Amino acid sequence: MATDVYREAFKLAGTIRDKYLRAVTYAKIGYYMYRARNSLYKEAFKYALNATASIETPPLMVKALIEVASYLSKVSPSTAKKTFHEAYELILTFPQPLRDDMLVSLSERLLEIGLVDDALFYGHDIEDTVKRNDLLLKILRVYLKKGNMRKAYLIVGKIQEEPWRSIGAIETIKEHLKREEFGSAIRVLSEIKSDYWLGEAMKEVAVYLKNSDVPKATYEKFVDIALGMSGESGFDVLRSLLIGLAVQGEIKFVINILERLSKGQKEEILLGIAQVIVNKEEYLHQFLDSVGGENFDKVAHVIMDKLLEGIPSEEYVPVVIKIGSRSSDDAVLVKVVRYLSKAGRFKEAWDFAEKVRGNYLRSLAFGSIAVEKLRTADIDGAIDAALEVKDPRWGSWLLSEILTKILELEAEGKVKEDIEERAKAQRKFWEGE
Question: Whose CA is closest to 189, among 141, 212, 223, 213?
Answer without folding.
Answer: 223
